[in-house]
Amino acid sequence: MKIKTQLRIFLIGVILVPILAALTLPAYHYLTRPERILIDGYKQVRKMSEIPLSKRDIGVFKQLLRTLPPNVEFIIIETKDKDKDIILANTMSEYKDKTEIKKGEIFRHMNATSDDYFYQFVSPPLENSHSIMFISRANREQNNIKKNSGFERTFRIILIFIAIFELFSILIIVNLTHTISRSITILNKNTQKIADGELDVKLDYEKNSKNDNEITSLTENLDKMRLALKDNEERRTKFIMGISHDLRTPVAVIKGYTEAMSEGFCNTPEEEKKTLGIISTKTEQLETMINTLINFVKLNQTDWVQQLKKQNIIPVIKEFAEGAVTTGGIFKRNVSLQIETEEDIEIPFDKELFHRVLENLFSNALRYTNENDSILIRAVTKEESGEKKLLLTIKDSGIGIATEDLQKIFDMFYRASSSRREEGMGIGLATVMTIIKAHGWKISVNSELEKGSEFLIEIPVS
Which of 88, 91, 199, 323 measures 20 to 30 Å from 447, CA to CA? Predict the structure, then answer.
């Protein structure tokens, strides 16, 4: 579970528990207020007692009293003289067969049994001078059980909820602490591996498991970084090996011819001139290779991206294309140019690097085409999903690229099967890709053996 989710659940619990606890207090006061200890039916009796009764009303009143709850007993007593009281209606077992009782006997009986019963009585006025009393009672134990049962049940439910939330909050805290501690331990262990240079060892993490969280996601990103570092390390090793291999050849040639001249093997001026020409050619080749490598390394520095200035890109394309037409004529290639866009498209780019992209792509088109093959340089603008793009195409009708090579031609030092007979270090298209990515552009290639290749550069116009 995500740490953020666990924290949200914990906060909900922290907020709800005090709220429930705060609600418990007023609920307790409500359920224990004095009015709640009254005998059931007392309010009805009290209300009826406020109305003056006639003789015939007493009969109706008797019937109404019989509608009281079964656990409530009552007795109706009329006082006529000083010595005795008359029982008009009764449900109390003690006076079941009596119609008359001594004066004050009922009060003495109430006093004697007050520990067992709740007594309540009213004395409504009669139309004559006589007085009447309505006495009701309920068993204390039964009444308390009934009165308190609802309160206790409600209070018990609230306490259960509070206990559940407290337990839930404790479990969340324990689980959260365990999750964070475990995740940090794993993260620390994995970062230590990278710090120790163990790039070949896969980092320990379980993707998409129940223990996955934000910290373990960092471990996953660290593993991606480990793979990237490992790949960069391999590329650097391969880069150094490639440099060593490719630079060794011209250096060996220069060294060989230099030793030959110093040992007097070049006896004639013509041989010396020829040898110096070869040395000069190999020196220029060596210089070109070194400059290419240095420029490629510079492309990996991103500081210059912030300093790019907006400038019109169409004149740069036209200038290059005009030179390409001339070069194509020398190599007997049919080079054509199509500009199907406005003339004032300003884009932030580095003119020198962009020129290198065009030169590399055109150089490959020249290399992998035959005499009388065609090369097209085309620039058009297109709007897709409200975004305007400049599409620059360099298309040839040469030997093409095999399908299995298409995904790798932009990799450093990769040489496609159709190009291995050619000279070079295999970093031309890798340089192109680096420049394109550095500018935030896109490049793609479509090719088919014996039908030619088409490189397409997509340049956003903002």
Answer: 323
Pull the structure tokens for residue 253: 């040639």
Q: Which residues pair with 139 in a beta bridge?
A: 117
Q: What are phi and psi of 154, to 5 degrees?
A: -65, -45
Q: How many CB atoms lie within 10 A of CB 5?
A: 10
16: closest CA among 167, 175, 170, 165?
A: 165
Q: What is the 3-state secondary structure (H, E, C) of 250-303?
A: HHHHHHHHHHHHHCCCCCCHHHHHHHHHHHHHHHHHHHHHHHHHHHHHHHCCCH
Ranked by mean pLDDT, the top range of 167-171, 384-388, 420-424, 443-447 is 443-447
pTM here is 0.47
Alpha-carbon 160 to chain mean position = 35
- Pick from 133-147, 250-264, 342-356, 420-434: least confident: 420-434
DSSP reduced 3-state for 117: strand
Those residues whose C-beta lies under 8 Å from the C-beta of residue 403, and which sit 6 or more positions away, are none
Give a three-class secondary structure readout of 312-339: ECHHHHHHHHHHHHHHHHHCCCEEEEEE
- The alpha carbon of 237 is separated from its chain's Cα centroid by a whole number of angstroms, namely 37
Say which residue the tokens 């139309």 belong to.
127
Dist CA 229 CA 100 (whole Å): 110
Which residues, other chains included, contact 166 with Cβ-Cβ below 8 Å and sequence gap of 6+?
17
- Give the whole-angstrom CA distance, residue 192 versus residue 184: 12
CA 339 – CA 161 distance, rounded (Å): 76
Q: Give the three-state DSSP class for 125.
A: strand
Report yes or no: 388 and 353 within 8 Å, Cβ to Cβ. Answer: no
CA–CA dist 18, 21 (Å, integer): 5
Pairing between strand 442-448 and 452-460? Answer: antiparallel
